[in-house]
C-alpha cells in the first residue's frame, strides 16, 4: 500500500479514471469534491456514485460560492458555447473557464493532504482533448508543485508533496480506454456543462462534444443520456 492520497473528484470521466489509477497503484484515496455554485452541480451526484463504486470511505464535499465573482458561463448568467468545432475549442480560452478554479481546488487539496499526512495529490487535468484552459497544462502543475514545496509546513520540513496528473498527455479516447480497462462505470459519470432539469447532457457544449468524440474514437459505446445526440 502506497499510503493516503487526496484525489480531486468532479464526477467526470477524467477525475473518475484518475481515481481508478490512484487506487490501482495502491493509494488509499481520500476523494475531494466541490460545490462552488456551478450550474452543473448534478456532477456531485456523479462524484458520489463513482466514490461508492471504488469503495472510497472518505469522500469530502467542500462548499463555497464562486458566483460571487462570476465571469464564467459555469458560475454566471452567461451562455454556454454550443456546437463549437475542434479548431474553435483549441483557440482562445472559452467563457466556460472559471477564474483560478484549479488553483483553488488544488489549494484545498493541499490543505487536506497536509492534515491527513498525505504526500500525494491526484488531479485529472488533460492538455490534449480539452477546451483551452491554462490550468490544465503541465507548466501549471509543475509550478503548483514547486509552490507547495516552499509554502507548506510539510514542504519546509523536507516532506514535499507530489502532484500527479496521470492523464495530462492522453487523448480523451486513450483516457476512456484506460478507464474501461480498469472497470470505470462511465454511466455513473457526468460531463455536461449545461444539463437539463432531468440531468440529461445537452449534447452540444464543449464537454459533451469532447466526451462523444472520445467514445467514438475509442470505439466504445457512450452511455450518456443526451438531449441532442452530438454525433
> Would you state the CATH class?
Alpha Beta
Overall helicity: 25-40%
DSSP strand tally? 5
CATH topology-level name: Rossmann fold
Strand arrangement in the largest pleated sheet: 3-2-1-4-5
Head-to-tail CA distance between termini: 42 Å
The count of domains is: 1
Count the helices. How many?
A: 8
Strand content: 5-15%
The CATH homologous superfamily is termed: HUPs
Average per-residue pLDDT, rounded, comes to 95
Largest sheet: 5 strands, parallel
- General shape: globular
Are there runs of 5+ residues with pLDDT below 50, and where? Answer: none
User: Given the helix and strand composition, which structural class is it?
Assistant: alpha/beta
List SSEs in N-to-C order: EHEHEHHEHHEHH
Overview of the molecule:
- This protein is 36% helix and 12% strand.
- With 231 residues, it is an alpha/beta fold.
- The protein has one domain (3-190): Rossmann fold (3-Layer(aba) Sandwich).
- Strands 3-2-1-4-5 form a five-stranded parallel beta sheet, sandwiched between helices.
- α1 (13-24) links the parallel β1 (3-8) and β2 (27-35).
- The radius of gyration is 17 Å and the shape is globular.
Summarize the model shown.
The chain is α/β, with parallel strands linked by helices and 231 residues long.
Topology:
Layout: E1 3-8, H1 13-24, E2 27-35, H2 43-53, E3 58-63, H3 86-89, H4 101-115, E4 120-122, H5 138-151, H6 153-156, E5 162-164, H7 172-182, H8 206-218
Amino acid at each position: 500500500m502506497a499510503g493516503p492520497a487526496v484525489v480531486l473528484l468532479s464526477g467526470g470521466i477524467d477525475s473518475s479514471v484518475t481515481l481508478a489509477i490512484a487506487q490501482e497503484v495502491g493509494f488509499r484515496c481520500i476523494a475531494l469534491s466541490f460545490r462552488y455554485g456551478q450550474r452543473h452541480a448534478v456532477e456531485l451526484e456523479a462524484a458520489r456514485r463513482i466514490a461508492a463504486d471504488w469503495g472510497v470511505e472518505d469522500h469530502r464535499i467542500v462548499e463555497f460560492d464562486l458566483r460571487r465573482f462570476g465571469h464564467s458561463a459555469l458560475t454566471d448568467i452567461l451562455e454556454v458555447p454550443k456546437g463549437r468545432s475542434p479548431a474553435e475549442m483549441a483557440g482562445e480560452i472559452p467563457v466556460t473557464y472559471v477564474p483560478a478554479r484549479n488553483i483553488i481546488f488544488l489549494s484545498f487539496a493541499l490543505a487536506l493532504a497536509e492534515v491527513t499526512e498525505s504526500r500525494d495529490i491526484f488531479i485529472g487535468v488533460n492538455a490534449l482533448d480539452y477546451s483551452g484552459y491554462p490550468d490544465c497544462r503541465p507548466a501549471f502543475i509543475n509550478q503548483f508543485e514547486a509552490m507547495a514545496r516552499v509554502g507548506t509546513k510539510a514542504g519546509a520540513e523536507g516532506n514535499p508533496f507530489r502532484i500527479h496528473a496521470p492523464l495530462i498527455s492522453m487523448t480523451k479516447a486513450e483516457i476512456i480506454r484506460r478507464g474501461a480497462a480498469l472497470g470505470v462505470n462511465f454511466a455513473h459519470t457526468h460531463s455536461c456543462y449545461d444539463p437539463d432539469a432531468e440531468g440529461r447532457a445537452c449534447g452540444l457544449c464543449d464537454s459533451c462534444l469532447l466526451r462523444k468524440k472520445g467514445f467514438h474514437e475509442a470505439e466504445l459505446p457512450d452511455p450518456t443520456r443526451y438531449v441532442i445526440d452530438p454525433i
